[in-house]
Amino acid sequence: MNVPVIEQARIQARVLVPIVKALEDELGAKRAHALVRKALGDLYRRYGEEFWQSKTEKDLGQIMASAFSTYARGDALDYRVLDQSPDAFEIDVDRCRYAEFYKELGEPELGFLLVCSADFLLSEGFDPDIELTRTQTIMQGASHCDFRYRRKVTKGGDYGGKDRKERSGLDGNP
């Protein structure tokens, strides 16, 4: 059974939203959200790391295109690819059913906390040479989400170079 991510998010929301609301009542929204971010942070970073390590290719554009097609399953996202190369993947999401779902619940701020914030946490688990920039989200009322994944450029102008295995010595080379 291969459940689309959008359906998984809907199922999770039915459990997590009441829990977060109860935490907000007890601790206040700021503390409750910090606690939720902390609790989910390690989990999402680990998911990102597992995803990244499962990839045999080094092409950032191909890897992220594959990831976004997974998140878009079930008609969850409408997006345009602006740049796809071995060192970059840039898209604009023009319609987001995750945001629509949380808005229907009347909880877009929790949608941002539980869904959108995960994007950065997941990317922290990727290769440290990969960075995500996103300046706006539909969940927060923008017209689109602007995802910009890039391989970091070193001082010498080269891209980061070594992957996680190479940096850790797991490839057999010192």
Description:
The chain is 52% helix and 17% strand. The chain is of the alpha+beta class. Helix 4 (97-104) packs antiparallel against helix 5. It is globular and about 45 Å long. The model is unreliable at 161-174 (pLDDT under 50).
Question: What is this structure's SSE topology?
Answer:
Layout: H1 5-27, H2 29-53, H3 60-72, E1 77-85, E2 88-96, H4 97-104, H5 108-124, E3 130-133, E4 145-151, H6 164-168
Antiparallel strand pairs: 1-2, 2-4, 3-4
CATH structural fold name: Muramoyl-pentapeptide Carboxypeptidase, domain 2
What amount of the residues lies in strands? 15-25%
Structural class: alpha+beta
Mean pLDDT across residues: 89
Rough shape? globular
Compute the separation of the termini in Å.
42 Å
Per DSSP, the total helix count is: 6
Strand order of the largest sheet: 1-2-4-3
Secondary-structure element order, N to C: HHHEEHHEEH
* CATH class label: Alpha Beta
Provide tags for this entry:
single chain, 174 residues, alpha+beta, Muramoyl-pentapeptide Carboxypeptidase, domain 2, globular, disordered C terminus
Sum this structure up briefly.
By secondary structure, the protein is α+β, with helices and mostly antiparallel strands.
